[in-house]
Amino acid sequence: MLDAFSRTVVSADAKTAPVGGSELASLRSYVQDGNKRLDAVNAITSNAYCIVSDAVTGMICENTGLIQAGGNCYPTRRMAACLRDGEIVLRYISYALLAGDASVLDDRCLNGLKETYIALGVPTQSAARAVAIMKSAATALIGQTNTPASGGAKYRKMETTQGDCSALVSEAGSYFDRVIGAIS
Ligand SMILES: CCC1=C(C)/C(=C/C2=NC(=C\c3[nH]c(/C=C4\NC(=O)[C@H](C)[C@H]4CC)c(C)c3CCC(=O)O)/C(CCC(=O)O)=C2C)NC1=O
């Protein structure tokens, strides 16, 4: 598993080059924006239950066959496995966001996942849809663009210092896209 720092060292070493210029500039912004990053991780982890259950519910509403006999969220054992998988994926995304590097997500979660899903008959298109809904919710919470209309009774705005979080929103979004890419 790598993070923003170890990634810089590994790639500089591969080129037998010193760490300099643009690498140092990007580490500087990683350090400078450290508190924003921690807030972004908190926006995901402290709303994980809501993000996961809402995404799996949305996926099922769009495809109710999933909870009927023969569907992959039927019976409750499979429904539980599906919710658990959503939670696992979101947890590894939160680790990647904390580290500023996708390797923990790749190595410990996505490696072999598509093959596992195909072997078990888990519909990867539906799984990708659930991840896409998690992306919408998580990025709205990080960027504070969620609205009472989309949040309904569970509407919540994170209490953080106001500032520009667009880089973290797109970085977090890229980890969700990575999951979708890996299972599609
Ligand atoms: C460390 C990382 C890690 C991951 C990622 C992981 C995934 C994972 N998901 C599994 C099953 C499963 N995953 C799902 C998920 C779904 N079904 C649907 O219809 C939806 C599309 C989707 C939820 C969004 C289901 C239903 C099963 C059980 C399938 C079965 O046993 O028939 C299994 C098979 C073993 C088990 O049932 O526990 C693994 C290994 N396990 C891990 O340890």
Structural write-up:
- This protein is mainly alpha-helical and 184 residues long.
- It has one domain (34-183): Phycocyanins (Globin-like, Orthogonal Bundle).
- Helix content is 72%, strand content 0%.
- The protein has 10 helices and no strands.
- The protein has helices spanning 4-14, 21-32, 34-45, 48-62, 76-99, 103-110, 113-120, 124-143, 148-151, 166-183.
- Helix 8 runs antiparallel to helix 10.
- The longest helix is centred in the middle third of the chain and has 24 residues, at 76-99.
- The mean pLDDT is 95.
Key features of this structure:
flat, Globin-like, 184 residues, mainly alpha
The hetero molecules present are:
phycocyanobilin
Helical coverage, percent range = over 70%
Percent of residues in β-strands: under 5%
Shape: flat
Give the full name of the CATH homologous superfamily.
Phycocyanins
Structural class: mainly alpha
The low-pLDDT segments are none
Can you tell me the CATH topology? Globin-like
Span from first to last CA? 24 Å
Tell me the Rg in angstroms: 18 Å
| Average pLDDT figure | 95
SSE string: HHHHHHHHHH
Class, according to the CATH hierarchy? Mainly Alpha
Number of DSSP E strands = 0
Give a short account of the largest sheet: none
CATH architecture: Orthogonal Bundle
- Number of alpha- plus pi-helical segments: 10
| Overall tally of structural domains | 1
Family: Belongs to the phycobiliprotein family.
InterPro entries: Globin-like_sf, Phycobilisome_asu/bsu, Phycobilisome_asu/bsu_sf
Pfam families: Phycobilisome
Binding site for (2R,3E)-phycocyanobilin 1: 35, 39, 165
